[in-house]
Amino acid sequence: MPQPAAQAQDKETGRLEAFSDGVFAVAITLLVLDLQVPKLGEHATAMAVASALAHDWPSYMAFVTSFFTVLILWVSHHSIFQLVQKTSARLLFANGLLLMLTTVVPFTTSLVTEYLRYPAAKLACAVYGGVFVLMSLAFSLLWYGVLGDRKLLKPDASAEVVARINRNYRLGTPAYLLATLGAFVSPYVTIGICTILWIFWAFTARGECDA
Asked: How far is CA 187 from the centre of its chain?
């Protein structure tokens, strides 16, 4: 039968994870609101609808990039908390900062959707990439907060997984910073780098979750 202390620790981390999962779920769901049905009237032809849908390609591109980026962030968050046995005030606030930034992603996605074909596209994509820079920093704050207080880690936490997470987080901030600065060369540089990154994280995150 589980000891009271163990039950308290499970409940403590469980509440944090459940709350975080809810925020990630809401943020990822809100992204779909940018996908608008063309309003062409009852006499619209199939060709007109197809043309209107094609005209909205920026919203599809931004949706896919943001959806999978938030999904990978959630997977990474899950990977961290597989290794955590209890929380601290510092950990709770670092997690709160990360969640606050996660809720901003639908807004920055809308910004890219609205302005990608206009002169303001560079600024819109710089803001988009900049939020991911801040999220990467928040993730690092969360992770290194765990490492800084080793009693938060489970005794059987894999050293290999810890080292892999360290490597990935060292890459994240510079890569998203490059994506942000790349917006001033071309907004598509930002979208391209962010797309490459979520694909990269998708492969590396598998090892973290399986360990």
From this structure: 19
CA distance linking residue 173 with residue 178, whole number of Å? 9
If one counts every other C-beta atom within 10 angstroms of the C-beta of residue 152, the result is: 19
Rounded CA-CA distance 128/133 in Å is 9
Contact 107, 162 (CB under 8 A): no
User: How far is 37 from 199, CA to CA, in rounded Å?
Assistant: 28
Q: Is 89 helix (H, G, I), strand (E, B) or coil?
A: helix
Six-digit token string for 199: 């694909």
3 state SS for 121-165: HHHHHHHHHHHHHHHHHHHHHHHHHHHCCHHHECCCCCHHHHHHH
DSSP summary character for residue 59: H
The pair of three-digit structure tokens given for residue 68, joined into one six-digit string: 């999978």
pTM of the shown model: 0.84
Place of tokens 């890459």: 171
Length of the chain: 211
Asked whether 153 and 200 are in contact (CB, 8 A), the reply is: no
DSSP states along 178-203: HHHHHTTT-HHHHHHHHHHHHHHHHH
Interatomic CA distance for residues 158 and 19, integer angstroms: 25
Per residue in 64-87, pLDDT tens? 999 999 999 998 898 888 888 888
